[in-house]
Amino acid sequence: MITATTFFKDRMKNLNLSFPLAAACLLGTAMLQTGCNGYTSRQVLDPTAAAARLRSGENMKDEVDRLARPLIASREDHDLAVGVLTPDGAVHCYGYSVATPPGPDTIFQIGSVTKVFVASLLVILVQEGQLHYDDMVRSILPPSVKVSPDVGAVTLRELATHMSGLPREPHNLRQLKHVVDFVFAGRNPYDFITRDYLYKYIGTKRLQPKAERVYCYSNLGYGLLANLIEVKTGRSLPDLIQEKICGPLNMRDTVFTLTPEQRKRLEQGHAGDEPRFFPRNRPMPDWDMGDIMRASGGMYSTVHDLMTFAKSNLGMSGSSFDPVWAETQHVAIHTPDEDITLGWMIDRYPDWGTRITFMNGILSGYSAYLGMDTDKKIAVVVLSSNFNWKDKVGQNLLLRLASARETNSAAAVSAGQPVSPSPH
Fold this sequence. Notes:
Elements lengths: L3 H11 L4 H9 L13 E2 L5 H8 L4 H14 L5 E7 L5 E7 L10 E2 L4 H14 L9 H4 L8 H4 L3 H5 L12 H13 L9 H10 L14 H15 L3 H10 L13 H5 L4 E2 L12 E2 L5 H8 L2 E2 L1 H11 L8 H7 L4 E2 L4 E2 L4 E5 L4 E10 L2 E8 L4 E7 L5 E2 L2 H10 L21
Parallel strand pairs: 1-14
Antiparallel strand pairs: 2-3, 2-13, 4-7, 5-6, 8-9, 9-10, 10-11, 11-12, 12-13
């Protein structure tokens, strides 16, 4: 059997490159392109014409069609499930596919959207007094776990806002081998990051002085954050999120592990922009992210469930969660590209009077987008069965819908017929 690494060596020989040199070349590119987020982008087009169409009475579905249908026709996406929450509290769901369109209860992996749930859990536990944002790694892990002084002084807040100084993932030859296996064979590049590996890594890891640290998106940091939560509470991350968030909100399909019935509703994932040497739309399995890296991107969900979560985050559910979620949306870090909160990112569009709070997720054969305009009470979810770096629907759709509504205006956008979730 030819492994991905062997295949890579053979390809590099054809280019007259030694394996070490080729590996070094690949390290600068491929290692930036295997994670859940942090190198995604959002295609943002001027929403003026679309906003005018919507204000003049165009059906919202027509605007969704304008964004989604070309991606299906070009085979850039195999399946798209789109959800829209309008200010009246109605949820509208639309499905697109080269085969059978997905519905509001079709299940996808959601990648780094998982981080929003982990950060939200942290806020809940802090409000309950079980944790404090300034708790440090060394104060939570048992004395038997060796922790370098730099990592030991990292706080929970720093982990949750990507200010810990930890890299996106380990930058070493072992990670490189797994990246090569991903690029050529589509294998999970994170499956080696177990608890034992994480503890060994933080035992010797040196970080920049805190005064010199800048925002650095870290999948590894969220894995450590979740592990600290588990150590402190004595509970598993899936159990805590189910008890504290998904159970109370009746989000039955937002889970880390699928039941046999849920697996029947899982949309098949496909290659997209990655893996680099896979043909687009080749089927890919969903990944088991393990006990550590599941916090960075291991959850599954549906349009219906994520719309429920968005509605609560917008303070429209009338639940006790409303003030909790408001804390997750406070800006903690300003970067040149966007503002960072506990779990979310915020893009500002002053020319169009809109601020979008969002999160993207990319994993295995899936892409996900969850975004909100917290002022105008609009939310959009887009779930795709392809690994695509660029979001071309979610941010554009939300920006168009928000721009079509003037702040405090009572004028509603024509939304078409809502689709109710099917029973299960």
